[in-house]
């Protein structure tokens, strides 16, 4: 049985680069493409008609994650890597760390910045917190 690697993906270009890095670096691994559904994230163009944290809200966000995963996989050579997808609700960094611990993964791969893409930040807050709190090796892809 090969390694199991969690790849956090938020739909950003940095997350996509991290996913592509994981595919190249761990070609025989079981990759868990993971998205944390942040209940506190508010987007100006949100079309959430459902009450926050309701079943309808959760299903809407899971569907968004499924679309995110489809886009992430589009046109990529996955080789022998086994890719599964999953989501969990919570603030991204602690949710990534908790999921990794519960799933017993061997490592985590994250992009250095997420969707906020602040230019003056060397390491995004989510990546930094994952590095500080995870009990497994974390690779931050620039």
Automatic annotation (TrEMBL):
Residues 3-142 form the UspA domain. It comes from the Archaea. Pfam families: Usp (PF00582). InterPro entries: Rossmann-like_a/b/a_fold (IPR014729), Universal_stress_UspA (IPR006015), UspA (IPR006016). CDD domains: USP-like (cd00293). Belongs to the universal stress protein A family. This is Nucleotide-binding universal stress protein, UspA family. It comes from Natronorubrum daqingense.
């Amino acid at each position: 049985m090969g390694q199991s690697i969690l790849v956090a993906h938020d739909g950003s270009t940095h997350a996509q680069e991290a996913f592509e890095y994981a595919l190249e670096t761990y070609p025989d691994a079981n990759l868990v493409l993971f998205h944390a559904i942040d209940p506190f994230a508010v987007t100006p163009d949100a079309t959430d008609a459902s009450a926050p944290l309701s079943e309808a809200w959760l299903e809407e966000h899971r569907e968004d994650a499924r679309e995110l995963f489809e886009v992430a996989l589009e046109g990529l050579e996955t080789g022998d890597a086994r890719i599964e997808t999953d989501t969990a609700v919570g603030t991204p960094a602690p949710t990534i760390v908790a999921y990794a611990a519960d799933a017993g993964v061997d490592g985590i791969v994250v992009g250095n910045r997420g969707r906020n893409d602040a230019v003056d930040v060397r390491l995004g807050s989510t990546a930094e917190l994952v590095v500080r709190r995870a009990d497994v090796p974390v690779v931050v892809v620039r």
